[in-house]
From TrEMBL:
Domain AB hydrolase-1 residue range list: 54-160
Protein name: AB hydrolase-1 domain-containing protein
Xref: InterPro entries: AB_hydrolase, AB_hydrolase_1, AB_hydrolase_fold
Gene3D superfamilies xrefs: alpha/beta hydrolase (3.40.50.1820)
Coiled-coil residue spans: none
């Protein structure tokens, strides 16, 4: 049975889609902005198995960010503050007083900013291939090359991103991931979101993160680099870095 899709309204009037499953201490899985579609993810065996592992003994919460998936697509504000409103809307709608937060790659700055501002609400922070300063990530040669492709050839861009996400030895999974990316958002929306995300910088907030933090870096990830993971972990007072051997970029692959 698929999870029941519900909606929370942000303070700026955006409807955010989310679902919950399981019972126990809440674990909120933040979206990998802008690649999020909570209904299609559950229909994908790899994603579903990942979520089923996470929800053992926990209440799992998953939501789509603005402009993506089943959340409002007709949105113009994709700032860091706006994405924080998305998270606020969901946890407030559910009345979560304390919860753990999991974020992947581009969801990292939002999760870190939330952790710094709301230390009393987070029990743990889990970061996968994340970064604090977007320029460190988008300044990498690989991501610079992908930016040009994203703007000029959406089909080739999503196919290439699909292979980078799953590994080049899994063509079927890569094609499926590419289709997932295209269903998550439109090219024009992705371009608008990336223009904002490329300016995100929460590096000055790292010292304010009080919750125990696990920084996970998959060693098969083409980007971000392990140096970014080390830098991130070193800036958070109660952080531990784990480099995961023979692990692809995405945790659900």
């Amino acid at each position: 049975m698929e999870p029941r899709i519900q909606y929370a309204k942000t303070k700026d009037g955006v409807s955010i889609a989310f679902w919950t499953l399981g019972e126990g201490m809440p674990l909120v899985v933040a979206p990998m902005i802008p690649w999020s579609h909570i209904q299609r993810e559950w229909q994908w065996p790899g994603y579903r198995a990942f979520y089923e592992r996470l929800m053992r003994g926990r209440k799992l919460v998953r939501y789509d960010s603005r402009g993506s998936g089943l959340s409002d697509r007709d949105v113009t504000d994709f700032s860091l503050e706006a994405h924080l409103l998305d998270l606020d809307a969901v946890v407030d709608r559910l009345g979560l007083e304390r919860f753990a937060l999991f974020a992947t790659i581009s969801g990292g700055p939002v999760a870190l900013a939330y952790a710094a501002r709301h230390p009393q609400r987070l029990s743990h922070l889990l970061l996968w291939a994340a970064y604090a300063r977007a320029s460190d990530y988008f300044g990498l040669p690989q991501t610079k090359a992908m930016r040009k492709l994203r703007d000029e050839d959406w089909e080739t861009y999503t196919e290439t991103l699909g292979h980078a996400s799953t590994g080049w030895s899994e063509p079927e999974e890569a094609r499926r991931m590419a289709a997932h990316y295209r269903h998550s958002t439109k090219q024009e929306t992705a371009q608008a979101i990336y223009r904002e995300m490329e300016r995100f910088d929460v590096s000055d907030m790292l010292g304010k993160v009080e919750s125990p933090t696990l920084v996970m870096h998959p060693d098969r990830a083409p980007y971000p680099t392990v140096d970014l993971a080390r830098s991130l972990a070193s800036g958070i007072p109660d952080a531990r870095l784990v480099v995961l051997e023979d692990s692809p970029l995405m945790p659900w692959v």
